[in-house]
Amino acid sequence: MTDQPEPGRPDAPRLTTREAAELLGVKPETVYAYVSRGQLSSVRAAGGRGSTFDAGEVRALARRSGRREPSPAGGDLVFRTGITLIEDDRYYLRGVDATELARRHSYEEVAEWLWTGELRPGVRFEAPPETLASARRTVGALPAHSGSTDRLRVAVTAAAATDPLRFDLSPQAVLSSARSLIPTLVGALPVVGGASEAAGDSLARQLWPRLTARPVDTPALAVLDAALVLLIDHDLAASTLAARVAASAHAHPYAVVSAGLGVLEGPLHGAASGLAHRMLQEAVDRGSAVAVVADHLRTGRRVPGLGHRLYRGEDPRARTLFALLEDVPQAAGALAAAREVVATTARHAPLHANIDLALAVLSVACGMAAEAGETVFAVSRTAGWIAHALEEYEERPLRIRPSGQYTGPRPPQPTP
What we know:
Elements: E1 14-16, H1 17-24, H2 28-36, E2 43-44, E3 51-54, H3 55-64, E4 84-87, E5 90-93, E6 96-97, H4 98-104, H5 107-116, H6 129-140, H7 148-161, H8 171-188, H9 203-207, H10 218-230, H11 238-248, H12 253-264, H13 272-286, H14 289-298, H15 316-325, H16 332-345, H17 355-365, H18 372-393
Antiparallel strand pairs: 1-3, 2-3, 4-5, 5-6
């Protein structure tokens, strides 16, 4: 038995707004939002200054909402997110099948809906001329051998420097920055195709001439746009976790994106599609995927583009892109090679295609560089990082603070 008063009793302990917010792990404004929704009851404090809340009622809400009381030692941290759900080999964005979104809507439409919950048909993002010019000058100063992720990181920094309002973390200001940053990233990349974009073009159309010199065609552009949608978020991947850590420290949105890009460049994350591209290109050139798979297995290398820790079967994102690639005539050879890779590897391990292999089919078929998939990934995921930043800005600041387990020599030690 406990001696503490029951929730709802007149003698039950009461919490101030700040204490309730800390227990729930939210901002004080959110506590009053709970009151307006009927999830909490409040009583005006003595003297009319602020409100008080029943401690038992607040704890009950914390348990229902999955909140945990802050632990001085860090403890386990649970991220509550309403963005992505991966369940039963399906992939949902805000509860809607992401593959259906990719078939029906453009990247900009899905990004806007992910941020605001509002679908705006035909929405386009535009880069401010001054910001774009600054990003292009800065990117143009890099060595010729610089990769696309190098250029994107520099472009983010240049864009941030031109935005004096970047420290305003209100949702409206953050979204204004995001809507201008994403097309700035694309526009700062060098054009490798014969023609640049025109005013009012979709983001996919703007990105196309920066990935390949081949003329754009409608079926291939549809695949690129769908890939941008399908890569927009994928739960708490490494780069997204880095972005949320930055947002937890109330870093501005440009810094959040920089944090994500820094992790994305790792060979086990965004760069994985480049490995799949090189393998698939070799299979196409040799006319057989069997020999290429055998070479990988013989040298102890894993076959890229296969398997995903979150899916038992085929990555639904890959399945969607493969279906769209069927309508791209020039993709027939690369698509056949990809399927041969899957079939050959299946003799030894039950691995299925993931989105890196599907991106490789697009990049090989359309004459893109090996890093094209990484570029698509980085541009697309920027919107997802912003969505997670918007969530994290509403949480208790600096909550992502694990404790280190010291393994060095115990003090006192002699001064060196």
